[in-house]
Amino acid sequence: QKEVEQDPGPLSVPEGAIVSLNCTYSNSAFQYFMWYRQYSRKGPELLMYTYSSGNKEDGRFTAQVDKSSKYISLFIRDSQPSDSATYLCAMSGSDMRFGAGTRLTVKP
Amino acid sequence: GAVVSQHPSWVICKSGTSVKIECRSLDFQATTMFWYRQFPKQSLMLMATSNEGSKATYEQGVEKDKFLINHASLTLSTLTVTSAHPEDSSFYICSAHSSTDTQYFGPGTRLTVL
Asked: Could you give the CA distance from residue B42 to residue B105 in angstroms, rounded to a whole number?
């Protein structure tokens, strides 16, 4: 079993839709949880960074962490075509692990 | 699934020495590899983009003479930290792009410079 599982998609939604991206993990030692957005062949950019269970909101983005279920989510409200990218979840404790990334397309 | 390995997984060295980190794509060819570093409790920072057979493209603020990157084959890229100092201590991660533009991350190398 991989330490971090993320559905690679692809996921296609119409503009304005709410997008839900998810990851599960198996290592309870992970303490920090991150979501990155990556455009094709570019380095990932950090979107959200959390370290506790619960919700964290930043503009149209909400990150949710449930440590008891070992499950994290990223919600994108009012999705835009410019949100089309690959979204990577990542988590770290003593080391860092990434999900496979979910490829999202928002259609105008 | 595709696998990317890094070697070593951790290394401790004395200040002033050079350290080489290898990144290998085990079952696919990667024309592009990325090198990142992460400081504790901080996000990932892209250091450079490595293309097979050509010079690496470094991000602003990354010293190319200090962090030497070689991408000699489609399955191997190396990062050499030259004359390492304690401030170079970090977690270094590589990623490799497959022909389908899927990115796979290595497990990382933890460097500690004494």
From this structure: 18
Q: Which residues pair with B49 in a beta bridge?
A: B34, B57
> Which residues in chain B have their CB less than 8 angstroms from residue A34's CB?
43-44
Percentage above 90 pLDDT, chain A: 61
Q: Write the pLDDT tens digit of every residue in A10-61.
A: 999 999 999 999 999 998 888 889 999 988 767 788 888 888 889 999 999 9
Determine contact, residues A106/A15, Cβ cutoff 8 Å. yes
Chain-chain contact of A8 with B102 (C-beta, under 8 angstroms): yes
Dihedral of CA atoms A17, A11, A4, A71 in degrees, nearest 10, equals 30
Residue of B87, B86, B88 lying closest to B109 (CA atoms): B88
Pairs across A and B, CB distance < 8 A: 44
